[in-house]
Design brief:
mainly alpha; single chain; 10 helices; Penicillin binding protein transpeptidase fold; 249 residues; 3 strands
Length: 249
């Protein structure tokens, strides 16, 4: 009996070692699995319009958590060619003027933001439209190195698998233009009771002007800041060449 018990104790570690190696091999496959699934996810959304984004779901959950059971999301997809030509160029003029030229990351803007922030004062970001699509469509709110790393990964995939027009179309449809108001069509209907195809250049600029803080500013009843920023956006759009600036992409 004693000898048999000793034999069992000697064999147990030898049997456990292959199981541990098998578990480690499984863990090593996780990054490969994630890379494959995320690539497929982005590829599918090149052709299929998303019913929701993670930011919309996050905001809805946040409202319910605050006890706001009457909260509603306003979201209506419109293809880019069903929007006023003044809207895409207004978004680019406001958020990412080198959008047609960069590959997802504007290194010049990053360097300028770094120099500005080093001098102190209000922090300035340098996120491109591609990065904002990655963040709003696939990721959660908040700041962390993990989320930032995933944003970089998804931005690379988006730029590799989508044409620029699809990136801009996605952005125009999932950007938040008011509390719970996502996309240019929903914003146009809510603020001016008309389709996004009929937006004027001034209205397009006002939508783009509220993007830094859409829950604080109002495109329909703009205060002095939104009025000044919208006027600046219209000037920038004209200097870029208007809608023609985006037609070759």
């Amino acid at each position: 009996m004693g000898a048999a018990g000793e034999d069992h104790k000697v064999e147990a570690p030898a049997q456990a070692a292959p199981r541990r190696r098998w578990r480690w091999r499984q863990l090593l496959w996780l990054p490969v699995l994630f890379a494959g699934l995320s690539t497929l996810q982005v590829l599918v959304l090149r052709f299929i319009d998303p019913p929701l984004s993670t930011v919309m779901l996050w905001r809805y959950g946040e409202a319910l958590g605050e006890g706001d059971w009457s909260y509603r999301l306003h979201y209506q997809w419109r293809d880019l060619d069903a929007m006023a030509p003044s809207l895409p160029i207004s978004l680019v003029a406001a958020e990412d003027q080198r959008f047609p030229e960069h590959d997802g990351f504007d290194l010049q803007a990053i360097e300028k933001a770094r120099d500005h922030n080093a001098r102190g004062g209000r922090l300035r970001g340098a996120s491109t439209i591609s990065q904002q699509v990655a963040k709003n469509l696939f990721l959660w709110q908040g700041r962390s190195w993990v989320r930032k790393g995933l944003e970089v990964w998804y931005t690379v995939l988006i730029e590799a698998l989508w044409p620029k027009q699809r990136i801009l179309e996605m952005y125009a449809n999932i950007a938040e233009f008011g509390d719970g108001v996502y996309g240019a069509q929903a914003a146009s209907r809510k603020f001016w009771n008309k389709d996004a195809a009929r937006l004027s250049p001034a209205e397009s600029a006002r939508l783009a002007a509220v993007l830094p803080a859409p829950r604080r500013y109002n495109a329909a009843s703009p205060g002095p800041y939104v009025q000044r920023r919208a006027a600046w956006i219209q000037r920038q759009a004209r200097q870029l060449g208007g809608a023609a600036y985006l037609q070759d992409d």
